[in-house]
Amino acid sequence: MANFLAFAESRGGKLRKVAFEAVTAARQAADASGQSEVHALVIGPPGISAQAGALGKHGADVVVAVEHPKLERYNPEVFVATMAERLKGSSYRGGFFAASAQGRDLAPRVAARLGVSLASDVTGFELQGDAAVVRHPAYTGKVNVTLRLAGSPALISLRPGFVTPAEQPRAGRVEMLQPAMDPAAARVTVTELAQRSTTKLDLGEAPVIVSGGRGLRAAENFKLVEDLAAALGNAAVGATRAVTDDGWRPPTDQIGQTGRLVSPDLYIAVGISGAIQHLAGMRTAKTIVAINKDKDAPIFKVADYGIVGDLFEIVPRLTEEIRRIRGSQ
Amino acid sequence: MVASLRSHRRSRYFAAMKIAVCIKRVPDMELRFSIASDRKTLDSSGLKYEMGDFDGYALEVGLQLTEKQGPGEVVIYSLGPDGVQETLRKGLAMGAARAVQLKAEEVPFDGLAIAQALATALRDGGYDLILFGRMATDTAHGSVGPMTAELLGLPCVTAISHLEIANQRGTARRDLEGASETVEFPLPAVLTIDEGIARPRLASLKGIMAAKKKPLEVKPAQLGKVSLTVEAMELPPERPPGRIIGEGAEAVPELLRLLQSEAKVL
Predict the structure, then answer these.
(1) What CA–CA distance (Å, rounded) separates B153 from B123?
(2) For residues A91 and A116, which has the higher predicted lDDT (pLDDT)?
(3) How far is the CA of B172 from the CAs of A247, A321, B183, in angstroms?
(4) Dihedral angle, C-alpha A8, A10, A16, A19, nearest 10 °
(5) Helix axes A101-114, B144-152, angle to 10 degrees
(6) Closest chain B CA to residue A160
(7) Nearest by CB to B150, which of A112, A121, A318?
(8) Which pLDDT does position B9 carry in this prediction?
(9) Whole-prediction pTM value?
(10) Could you identify which of A96, A203, B134, B220 might form a hypothetical disulfide with B54, taking C-beta atoms 3.0 to 4.6 angstroms apart as the criterion?
(11) Model ipTM?
(12) Could you tell me if B241 lies within 8 Å of chain A, comparing CB atoms?
């Protein structure tokens, strides 16, 4: 019976949430195909194999651990070689990655190394005989595409947040593996990893996003947005391109066609008119709230709940009320 | 510092940088799309096309590198039907020296099939850098760049937001979720470019006139086997029409009630 391999992404010796998403997806695929096993591949510094328990809990029968003192940070060439060699040598039916920054770097190269195609940034999948049928939002989220991926192994990268990590305990038996090439021989090296903030939620992972636009009038007024996000507790802060172009917020905060494409449960747009390029980045949010002084702003066409008026009055009131609710919960 | 100064001098006098930029013609995303009757393609009537957003950044990076580091040449490549020539002319107008169309009647969704055609075309080009946008805005896969690097056996850094080149080596920064990485690599290399690195220039009238006389070569694309195919395309369900629930701060309690009891997101 052919097995499934999940790449378990880690940073700083710790597994990321997307690692459990990949393992959960591999478990779903394995269960759908009968008696298949799930193997999770984790690469990192000595001691990374201690993460096996958590991977086993999410459905990994085997945890393939690659430990090396020089693999504290991402090493694209070693990771590509090791993942490709494992997939090839053990004839897996499929391989799962996260379509995260690291997974988007790694997965296409593993696919090309093996000479197979890759289904990228997938929001749903199903195995059909020798093929895999996947769903993928394209054209800035304006078209949903169903794709058929032929060939084996079927390599799939999963849009973060679309698979809910589920606990389905398996043995998580550790199997140590040597890196497929000497890390010292890699041409490309990550010389520094700078964590922006350890407490802040990432835009791709936060269930709530509070986002600000030009209506805030000045960089310092983003404090209103930050305070609301802090009161909510589970929120990240985003921005429009106009705002990141002006340097009020870093470019990485931009939500839109050329920035992040996000699908949170709740999106609160503060002082955002709703240019089409911005809507492209957040139109798939479950619930959209808009606060804007112009009742004709395009954002109100997509907002489930809109409030027209002065954001400098509305947002502090909303923050205060949320604090009150959160305090009583 | 010393090494860096020396390298600048060297690059100015000896090393003419040769850069390839791969650009894709994509539909203008601002238009309303409809699905053709085969349910597998976009209805092409009324579609307008443009250069992919990120490809514009890649081209700008290439142009700036050849301007800053002394003599050099930027060659642009695009795979697709004759319509891509218009996109290539735009790149020539921005300042690329020459263009190559890899002619294919259809552009497959399969990144590997495209990467194989590009790798074949680029392999003996003698390029110091091969640049791509972080992803095409239409297929939104971001796989062709890193796949091409792999097929060519070249070092690769994806989705970079900052770049320095000196002495045949590069240092790039790439943004991750909540963090960033500094990456060092030797040339030749393949890079994919994220937004924020450099704003694409507008073509000047002089550039547009000059572009008409610049060489545009047409070669057949040697696409690889296509294993990723479109089964269906659908428009996502329309969002329900927006609703304004009130004005001013007095509407806040009603908003909270709706978020708690109707949307159930609080």
Answers:
(1) 10
(2) A116
(3) 21, 44, 5
(4) 0
(5) 50
(6) B177
(7) A112
(8) 42
(9) 0.92
(10) B134
(11) 0.92
(12) yes
